């Protein structure tokens, strides 16, 4: 079985993330969406809340599962028999960082595959979505309806 992981903080998941997950699910027997805790970012949602939103928004893909991990992604891959990491790239700036990570991961025997984000989503980032939502901006075209509702509820409470 060919397994891939789509890692990220997904705080929150966007249509750009879902584009990559959907396309990866068409190319692998199983895709794990791994919610990683990013210690350099302040999270709006807990890992459990993010996992719930991802499960809801990926339920139409039967070969996609959602998990979480704290630590090195290559250790997750080895522990869970994952052969490849799939990363979406929006711009050259993403590539610079991701290439370095891919080269480090390859030293541990884990391949990284890059997918160009669909042009319609190339500007999206979770940080942008959170910033817009914080100031009452309309993000309904950027995130699934359940995520949009969760964002509205969360920023209303702050």
Structural write-up:
- It is built from 6 helices and 5 strands.
- The chain is an alpha/beta fold and 158 residues long.
- The protein is 42% helix and 20% strand.
- The N and C termini lie far apart (45 Å).
- The chain is globular and about 45 Å long.
Order of helices and strands: EHEHEHEHEHH
Structural classification: alpha/beta
CATH architecture: 3-Layer(aba) Sandwich
CATH class: Alpha Beta
Whole-number tally of structural domains: 1
> What is the number of E strands?
5
**Helix count?**
6
Radius of gyration, whole Å: 15 Å
Which runs of at least 5 residues are low in confidence (pLDDT < 50)? none
Beta percentage is 15-25%
Major β-sheet profile: 5 strands, parallel
Helix content: 40-55%
**What is the mean pLDDT?**
93
Q: What's the CATH topology name? A: Rossmann fold
Termini Cα gap: 45 Å
CATH H-level superfamily title: HUPs
């Amino acid at each position: 079985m060919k397994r891939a992981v789509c890692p990220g903080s997904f705080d929150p998941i966007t249509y750009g993330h879902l584009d990559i997950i959907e396309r990866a699910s068409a190319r692998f027997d199983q895709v794990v969406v791994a919610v990683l805790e990013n210690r350099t970012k302040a999270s709006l949602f807990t890992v459990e809340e993010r996992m719930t939103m991802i499960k809801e928004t990926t339920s139409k893909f039967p070969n996609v599962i959602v998990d979480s991990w704290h630590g090195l992604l290559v250790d997750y891959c080895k522990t869970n028999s994952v052969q490849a990491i799939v990363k979406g790239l929006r711009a050259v700036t993403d590539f610079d960082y991701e290439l370095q990570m891919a080269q480090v991961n390859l030293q541990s025997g884990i391949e990284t595959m890059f997918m160009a984000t669909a042009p319609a989503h190339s500007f999206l980032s979770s940080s942008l979505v959170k910033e817009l939502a914080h100031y009452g901006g309309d993000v309904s075209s950027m995130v699934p309806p359940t995520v949009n509702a969760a964002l509205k509820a969360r920023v209303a409470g702050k």
